[in-house]
Amino acid sequence: xxxxxxxxxxxxxxxxxxxxxxxxxxxxxxxxxxxxxxxxxxxxxxxxxxxxxxxxxxxxxxxxxxxxxxxxxxxxxxxxxxxxxxxxxxxxxxxxxxxxxxxxxxxxxxxxxxxxxxxxxxxxxxxxxxxxxxxxxxxxxxxxxxxxxxxxxxxxxxxxxxxxxxxxxxxxxxxxxxxxxxxxxxxxxxxxxxxxxxxxxxxxxxxxxxxxxxxxxxxxxxxxxxxxxxxxxxxxxxxxxxxxxxxxxxxxxxxxxxxxxxxxxxxxxxxxxxxxxxxxxxxxxxxxxxxxxxxxxxxxxxxxxxxxxxxxxxxxxxxxxxxxxxxxxxxxxxxxxxxxxxxxxxxxxxxxxxxxxxxxxxxxxxxxxxxxxxxxxxxx
Length: 380
Ligand SMILES: [Zn+2]
Ligand SMILES: [Zn+2]
What we know:
With 380 residues, the protein is an alpha+beta fold.
């Protein structure tokens, strides 16, 4: 541990032990402005160390609980919880309050904003799970369990990768910063430390359970609720069921991406359903009430007297539910009048009889009154 060499937090900020919260804040502001690496291009490395030191001191002294613990037990009183100085995200958020947008703190603390690189926090990776559903399942919604192989924190070493009883040690190559800086003319290049892969720590005695990786692959069973009315390409987000975060950061999310199978006779457009139903010449002429299989049970389809082929009957609210909680779509029935191709002797006799009484003019429809007339109206 490096705590023996740590400077006293009050000394770091040049404060008396009795300093009031306002004094702590203004002392930190002064120190941070003085030591911000961007303002000290000539001695960037020293500045960075001083800056972090001041920030660490402030994160403890600005917090009444941590300050009390520090006053009683020194550095030991504030180590161990959330990193060796309790240097957490809260203080990072507070920067905006203290400095506004004066300069970029993300650069100093790394993109994750989690403080010292050695305590780098990083949200876990999101996972994708592809799920195939039948048309009916998508319409009705499903509650199911999925088995998901994913990385879990190793419980034997609590994610450190070190053999239980031992701990990771500060990386010698980067001094625990996780990054190496190079100055080349005007350019300052920072790259991830190759020795520790940016973790700032290395493990000498590896945990046997996870072989030093800090995590193990496990298959989890997760309850999933798919709302009714989903379609192909719908993504369901299951929060916090992705891979675990690093150093106490939140886990990623799980995204379930759906693929819905086609239905043999229903076609969907959004929440509306379309299907085609054949009717007989007699039903078309006389009218009828059909019973057809809908997506959730049987539906009655009224056919009015004198229905033409190609007519569409709309059944309101008999489509699919909106997965976002809106109303229901409609069911559109496309009616097709089917001419009989095989008649019994009796049917033929009746048809002939009917034919003598039905009058229809078998002349071609007047061109001018239909298609061309309309075109002339538009362009004429
Ligand atoms: Zn382990
Ligand atoms: Zn390193």
